[in-house]
Specification:
The chain is mainly beta and 113 residues long. It is built from no helices and 11 strands. The mean pLDDT is 96.
């Protein structure tokens, strides 16, 4: 399975960050996997954001206080992260993955005016 993140590299404070993960080599609706997003802020460790399961159920890290939303487009085999009301603290390298086996290369998102 290969995963590729895409989305804007620069987002203004208070806006909504939107990233898409395109999956190839396997379906996001089969296999009992969780399709996840994680991030790594500069100089810090990895932070789990959340997942959408093969069945469509979702989980979010409570530390994000309801700002995260993960959805999917099964016809295009993609899943999307939306993070609202971003601040500079949301600046990070964002990864999507088929937890825990396969991960994308990551995409840098900077929150700045």
């Amino acid at each position: 399975v290969q995963l590729q993140e895409s989305g804007p590299g620069l987002v203004k404070p208070s806006q909504t960050l939107s990233l898409t993960c395109t999956v190839s080599g396997g379906s996001i609706t089969t296999g009992n996997f969780d399709w996840s997003w994680i991030r790594q802020p500069p100089g810090k460790g990895l932070e789990y954001i959340g997942y959408i399961s093969y069945s469509g159920s979702t989980y979010y890290n409570p530390s994000l206080k309801g700002r995260a939303s993960i959805s999917r487009d099964t016809s295009n085999n993609q899943f999307t992260l939306q993070l609202s009301s971003v601040t500079p603290d949301d600046t990070a390298l964002y990864y999507c993955g088929r937890d825990p086996l396969d991960w994308g290369q990551g995409t840098q998102v900077t929150v700045s005016s």
